[in-house]
Every structure is written in C-alpha cells, then in structure tokens.
Amino acid sequence: MNARITQATLHDESNEHHGKQVDIRIKDGIVTEIAPSLKATKGEELINFENLMVSPGWFDSSISIGEPGFEERETIKNGLIVAAKSGFTAVAVNPNTYPVIDTNSGVSFLKNKAAGSAVSLYPIGALTRKSEGVDLAELYDMKQAGAIAFGDYQHAVSNPNLLKIALQYTQGFDGLVLSFPQENDLVMKGMANEGETAIKLGLKGIPALAEHLQIARDLYILEYTGGKLHIPTVSTAQSVKLIKEAKAKGLDVTCSVAIANLFYTDQELEEFDTRYKLLPPLRAEEDRKALVAGVKDGSIDMVTSDHNPLDIEQKKLEFDHAKFGTIAQEATLGALLTLVSERKAVQLLTAGALRFTGKKATITLNEPANLTLFTSKGTSTFTKEAILAKSKNAAFLGAKLKGSVYGIIANNQFIAS
C-alpha cells in the first residue's frame, strides 16, 4: 500500500518525533518519511482523521478464538478482523481450542489460517498435553513451528515440579512460560470473588488467597530455576505487591491485567448477570485501585483484553452453570483511556510485543509500517452495534468509554474501523 498519513500526533517514545504532529509516508508498506509536513505524491492514499494519533501497533497478549473445534464461538478470519478494528496489529492466541494446541501441527494450523491477514497471529502453545496439567507438551517442537509462549489458558499448574521442569527446559531455547495464578484447591467450585457481594448473593467464593499462594509459589520456583515467567491476568492488590518485589530481586517475570478487572468490581454481579462471570473474578474496589496503580507505576507490564468469545448456550444460563469469560477487544482502548493517559495506554498496549516476540514495537524509517491509528478525544457508550465478534457476551455493554480506534496499518494493509 502507498499512503500519506497527515496531521497525526506521534506516540512512540523511541522516535525523535514523539509527541509532535507529523505526516507519515508509507510506500509499498514501508515507512519512508516522517516530517512535520509532506507533499502529496501521485497514487498515494490520503489518511486523515480528526484528532488523529498514531502509535506502534498494539499487541494483545491473551485472546481466545475457538477455531479449530469451536467455530460457533469465533473463527480465525473474523477474530483477526475484530482485532484489527479494535486497534491490534498482533495477537497472542490461547490454546483453548479442540483439539488443544499442544503440538507443532496445531501451531502450524493457526499460522497457516492467519496467513495474509493484516493482523499477525502468534500462537501460545499449551504447556501440558491437552492442558490437563500432567505431562509437558511438545514445547520445543511448537517453538520451532512458531509458538511464542507456553501456558494452559485458565488452568493452573498444580504440580510445582512440572513448573520447575518447564522453566528449566525452556531456558535451552529462550522459551516463555505462562502460569495462571490460581491455587485450585482453594477455589473448588467458586464462582465470584470471596467477599461481601458473594456472601450477599449466596455465591461460592474465589478467595484472593488462591491467587497470592500460587504467585508466591511460582516466584519461589522461578528464583530457584531461572528462566522466563509471565503471570497472566492478575487481579489483586497483594499480587501486584508480590510481583513488584520479585522484579526488585531481579527475577525475569512479567504480568498482565485484563481490562475488565481494571474497570469493574464484583458489585456488578448484584443482578446475577453472567456477562460479569470472569476468571480471575472481578474483585473488590481496593483491588481494582491497586491494579490501576500497578499499571501506572509499571508493576504491571501490560493490559490485555483477555477477549474470550462464548456462544449464548454457554453464557445465558443460571450463574452457577455459565462459563467464565467476556469479549472485550472492541472496548479495550475506550475503557483504558478512562483510567490512564494516552501515553501510558500506548505503553501498556505495546509492551507485550517485546516480551512475547522479542521485538520492540517502534515506528522506524525504512521498516514495515506497523501502526495503530486512534484518538483519545470524545466519549461514547458501548452498545451492541459496537460488537464485532460473533459472540455477544460483552461485559462492557452500557459502559462509558473514551476515545476511539480509527484502524491499523500492518502487513502492507490498511484496515479502517
């Protein structure tokens, strides 16, 4: 594609034009010029939006799609369109498909199905076979096929020796291990955050202690073994503190937070609305505030949508029987901008690229354009019309959001929202 982006505020702290209004020329998908003003050239598309901001392309470190096996929830083709129109140029896809992505052929299937898309799909291979937590999966083979990390989505590694071996083994090929922060024996059939709201509603509780114990255990193991650990979707104040202390020790650990846990608390459950049945569960206000503080001070490395499409048969049920999860990509920017500045939002939405792929998200001359186009101006209410996913299980329906996504430029394509 050949295009000229005009009058855009650049958000890239590694670029000399950071914070300035510039024009950007793209030729054959390559960034060729960045300047305060550029003259038009023949045959190029003009891209201009009101209050336009441009940043390196965003990376979502946790999304679920469904295909293969659960295409009724979401297909790879539509899932990547949802990501593009939500501002993401790259996504890490969880292995919770049928069959589970636990072999190199499963990884290759995802990569091949995503070929030609504007959005780059990066598979997360299962850490254990069938995500059952018994035996390690074929980690090295999956790495060779294109897996960027290994974890069992929303399944904790109960066996500490298994995590120890995984962290030791993956050091041989610089692998990244994910460990879901939940001590299963403390959760059992828990449905919601253990606290006042759960007691009032008669729901079985998921104690914050279950998250703290698992994270503390995992960090002790990491300190013993070395290796690279990522803790996805933390949800409590104590979790933030534990990870902050581990980083101060020099441990190679990162963590993410789901946008819903930054935005909502367990008080949303008072109507037994299953759209708010999430894992980790929505916590108390003091936890939510600690999470917001954590993203602001860098204790939490990245924000993920934790986008998880589920069909109506899995969500429109009694609260006890409904599955955990919500779609959230379409609302991620708007929700995040109600909590942090656009500068911090860009940091949180691009940080995953370096951790998961080893490549820092930047805007560099003579390199392929990988850009997200957005604005932090304006407010809106998230409605059903804003849902792009096949599934409609959106916790953010009715939420007051800030800013909007205009589209992405990536892999030599421009996708407008």
Q: Can you describe this structure?
A:
- The protein is an alpha/beta fold and 417 residues long.
- The chain has 2 domains: 3-53 and 367-380 and 398-416, Urease, subunit C, domain 1 (Roll); 56-357, Metal-dependent hydrolases (TIM Barrel).
- It has helices at 76-85, 104-114, 139-145, 160-170, 184-187, 196-201, 208-225, 237-248, 259-263, 285-297, 312-315, 329-336, 342-357; strands at residues 3-10, 21-27, 30-35, 45-47, 53-56, 58-63, 88-93, 120-125, 149-150, 176-178, 192-193, 205-206, 228-231, 253-258, 302-304, 371-381, 400-410, 413-416.
- The strands form 4 sheets. Strands 1, 2, 3, 4, 5, 16, 17 and 18 form an 8-stranded mixed beta sheet that branches.
- β7, α2 and β8 form a beta-alpha-beta unit.
- The longest helix has 18 residues, at 208-225.
- The two termini are 17 Å apart.
Summarize the structure.
By secondary structure, this protein is of the alpha/beta class. The chain contains 13 helices and 18 strands.
Give the secondary structure arrangement, pairings included.
Elements: E1 3-10, E2 21-27, E3 30-35, E4 45-47, E5 53-56, E6 58-63, H1 76-85, E7 88-93, H2 104-114, E8 120-125, H3 139-145, E9 149-150, H4 160-170, E10 176-178, H5 184-187, E11 192-193, H6 196-201, E12 205-206, H7 208-225, E13 228-231, H8 237-248, E14 253-258, H9 259-263, H10 285-297, E15 302-304, H11 312-315, H12 329-336, H13 342-357, E16 371-381, E17 400-410, E18 413-416
Parallel strand pairs: 1-4, 1-5, 6-7, 7-8, 8-9, 10-13, 11-12, 13-14, 14-15
Antiparallel strand pairs: 1-2, 2-3, 5-16, 16-17, 17-18
Helix pairs in contact: 2-3, 4-7, 7-8
